[in-house]
Amino acid sequence: MTRGYFITFEGGDGSGKSTQIALLRDWLMQAGYDVILTREPGGTRISEKIRELILDPDNQEMADMTEALLYAAARAQLVSQMIKPALAEGKVVICDRFVDSSIAYQAYGRGLGDAVGVINSYAVDGCMPDLTILLRLDPEKGSSRIADREHDRIEQAPDAFHRKVYEGYLALEKTYPERIFGIDASGTIEEIADEIRRRVHTVIGR
Ligand code: TYD
Known about the structure:
alpha/beta; Rossmann fold; 5 strands; 54% helix; 14% strand; globular; binds thymidine-5'-diphosphate
């Protein structure tokens, strides 16, 4: 059975994920891979609708568990409609955020704990990344990088929340060292891109 490769990117807000994702996609495409890029929450018609609901700054009364379930619902749709079929066709799927975001933001940040992993085991349905790139950046630095853009509901959360998210990511990196590759995101764009390519090369093996 052919199976492609599933690569996810993680990191706090302002860690430079989008730039690195675009560079990796271009590099893989030039090497001849069939690459699909997607993002969370979102990536399908239904998941994008859920995204709007979650991130709308007007939805201040949203309960933390509602938030966690909505992220998981958006993920379940993306996995079944998009990620699994693409992997079955042998494609490389790059996803901007995945289940680790829920562990960092909802389990650690919101303090929902183990429930988040349980909910998400149904959402991902066995479809876990082959490699996760974690761009590690101190949350204060991250928030100063995004200071001049409009903030969604999650970005508006207080600094203490973003500090807990960061700690969640560090804990995940420790727990899953074979899957999660952490990189210091304070380096230059080229340095970081180089490190990512080297790691992807060893995983994809070309
Ligand atoms: P995203 O669009 O990736 O924002 P950014 O470009 O700033 O990374 O994600 C939107 C927000 O949703 C982001 O603040 C992180 C948050 N998030 C969660 O809290 N839990 C999740 O499971 C996911 C996927 C994202």
